[in-house]
Fold these 4 entries.
Entry 1:
Amino acid sequence: MKTANSPKRISRNLDNSDDTTTKVFHVFQAFLNGWSGHRFNAERELHDHCLHSTVSIIEKKYQVTIHRKWVTVRGYNNTPTRVKVYWLSRENQFRFLSNLRNGA
């Protein structure tokens, strides 16, 4: 899984938004920069405690599809734990950025 790139990389493209300091915006920037991960990665890397809720908000607010699949990771006491891995496809990244540049 990729780790989050600097969210500042795309922030200048989204500066017209009035919510550039929110958790949702920060997580969306990470997805646009190629981040993928599950709830435990999001907690450590993005400081998001409820990734599933944030993903839902991003999909509705920015009209993109965040892909997901179930995986098993080691949880508490190395117990197998099922979590979903989330990512934004390249196609959705380009579509969103293209629409942003074109004023859509």
Entry 2:
Amino acid sequence: MQSSCYEPGGEGAEMLADTVMALAALAGNTVVAAATTDAWEAARRGFARLLGRGDPDRTQMAERRLAETREQLTGAEGTDLEQARAALAERWAGRLADLLEEHPDAEADLRALVQQIQAALPAPIVSAAGHAVAAGRDVTISATSGGVAAGVIHGNVTPPDPTRPGPAST
């Protein structure tokens, strides 16, 4: 009998599960990102078809949930909008993770749909006013000659290896 690299409980299965969860999270974020753009109709049709798996009732339920998502996002502003985006992305990630668990064969279709929708999304716009700084990527804040440097982060940001506050070690 030939051994599989994805045996249940093995390291390969864990890596596969991580990959599937990452895809589900990416897909959940893609649903939310598309909800208020011109890419919405293609996203709505694609995700409803994928979640429906050929069952008209399941497709209709997915369409209803997608419509509710769009309504919640178009009706929110400011902090409420960011909170709604985060909560809805997490909810869709869970739904899509369940889909992939129940139908592992849907992974390639989901990956292709996410790529198609992301390609149709508008490029992010970054802007700032007054004494603010805005960036679509990395920002480095430093002080020299005894100065003080500070920054405030708005949004969902995770620094890779933040330095701990306190005196610099030599």
Entry 3:
Amino acid sequence: MRHAVVPRLRGHFSGARWERSRPLPGVRPVRTTLRTAHTIAFAALYGGHVYGIPAASLHPALAATVATGAALMALEMYRTPLWPVQVRGVAAFVKLALLAAVAVWWDWRLLFLTLALVIGGVVSHMPGRYRYYSLLHGRVVGAQESG
């Protein structure tokens, strides 16, 4: 089944239309601001769990983490349609799943949040040849931009 679906998907998501970033004037300061807000929100959420702050008191940090993360994901998906199949996009979805897992396996929350933090740090600082690698295409796709 996989062998029949992947070539079809690969063919659908190939070509310059998909592999090229959409220009968005002024995107760099927006991305930097969102990333900074996301880091602050997650730091408050993580620290709250580390130091045993009551869960209800962490709801604003959770909401800010989810909101800024969703804004970053939406921005990246708009700019680079192939983002969800690149390592950087897949990593974001894995981090989202880890955050959701906290609600199900509360006693394991520090492990899940630590894994999300490690994945974010590693993926955001790995070379572009890995970060822009498409799991669908089996190669680097899209522009390797900075910022």
Entry 4:
Amino acid sequence: MYRALVASSVICLLSAVVAAPSATEASYVSLIQVIANPEKFDGKRLVILGFIDFEREADLVFPDKLRYDNVILPDTLWINPTEEMGKNKTMLHLKYVRIDGIFHAGAQRQFRFAVGGMTDIRSCTPWSDPSHPGRERIDEMLHSEPLPK
């Protein structure tokens, strides 16, 4: 019973994340779609998931850790971090994050490899930590002992 409750809660949460937005909300979109078709998303408020790297040269979002590890720079977006992101840098750096912001197609002067970037970021929240991925956390919840009654 407990496992079924946890599984249905996870499914509801994921459904809410990918639900179609209203006209005033951001569109949830794959970072890979944005990289493949930057002009399609230019000037639009988007919510993306990606692997964030704060560096001196440029703050970048990669589609995944593998592209970060192998320095696949054309598959990145630059970001203009907010003050809050700066305060939370240790919590966000080298983690998967959910970013809600305005996408702009095109390179930024200090980072010419990216297809575009995110500005006017409303939120940047942790999504998953590669050292303890979300899938592992869900499995732990599903296989843990039920709560006492």
